[in-house]
């Protein structure tokens, strides 16, 4: 499975992945998923929100056990964030077959569409739409950096966007969702265990900061006559770091765009995207409010207008204790740990009993080509997932 998947969307020079939603690379990943389903005789289904399903048993049956993750990536992503969960799910199905285990409830592997939100700015679009946490109107308003709407992108990739929206009936048929994911930190590495179970996901969100000034000549405009949004932006980046540090939170400006983006022109507009996360929602709200206040104050000194738009938000997720404890028991005393990373499992957790398994990442690095997992640990992940699926669906 890895051999077929690894070249898709891979940048030759860096080894990083660009598998943005509804692009050619995404289409190739989707074709791979469908081929995996069909080669195992699983019933393939594409839902109205662009999520792919591979069913062992009746797709319309009740109390299904679902496992899976996503295949899209961030810009210059690693190989494992997302795909490890999907590959491991198919491998766990193979393992159940090899064990002679047969599910007595429907069992499905899922690939949720557009988890990273790298193209349209909102993360977990496929699961958010399904759970009604992103409205169809909200989704239709999304545009990529070239102005292409989500609906246009879907259409160009051959998916009809007309029916996107909540799919509560589908979620009501799921009795448990388990997502296996590479760990995005080194907590497991420090414990010496290859596998862990998730306790919680920190609340997190994305805010777009627009800094509007005035374009002018870099060689002829006196410093005191400038309205330079780059200054306000730079100060805001430093302030974000400080506010986050003081609050024990995280704040990152990882994406920026500049107009007109000329070496010898003062910028007219700087757009910076803030990703911020904290252990609780109150801390997160106060860190973001502080960053915004600092930006606006500094903007007044620079003659720069600052507007802040929240583009997405995910509240704190505390995974269902029943399922989480069942998993920990099935796996025999593995570590239970929280994460700062967002996941489809978090989006679904209000509607469906949901749990996550983490596989050790020796570099701790993620959203980068340096993301890693050893073959032994990946195989331990498959065994753990098969144990969990057997325990949930085959007894
Ligand atoms: C998804 O990986 C996120 O946490 O941004
Ligand atoms: Mn990710
Ligand atoms: Mn992921």
Sheet having the most strands? 9 strands, mixed
Mean pLDDT: 97
**Ligand catalogue:** glyoxylic acid, manganese (II) ion
Number of strands: 15
Oligomer status: single chain
Shape: globular
Report the uncertain regions: none
Percent of residues in beta strands: 15-25%
Helix content: 25-40%
Pattern of helices and strands: HHEEEHEHHHHEHEEEHEEEHEEHEHEH
Rg for CA atoms? 22 Å
Task: Summarize, please.
With 395 residues, the protein is α/β, with parallel strands linked by helices. The chain is 36% helix and 23% strand. It starts with a helix and ends with a helix.
Textual characterization of the structure:
This protein is α/β, with parallel strands linked by helices and 395 residues long. The protein has 13 helices and 15 strands. The strands form three sheets. Strands 1, 2, 3, 4, 5, 6, 13, 14 and 15 form a nine-stranded mixed beta sheet that branches. A four-stranded antiparallel beta sheet has the order 9-11-7-12, with helices on one face. The protein has a two-stranded antiparallel sheet with strand order 8-10. β3, α3 and β4 form a beta-alpha-beta unit. 47% of the residues are buried. The mean pLDDT is 97. The structure holds glyoxylic acid and manganese (II) ion (2 copies). The site of glyoxylic acid (GLV) has 4 residues, from loops. The site of one manganese (II) ion has 4 residues, from loops.
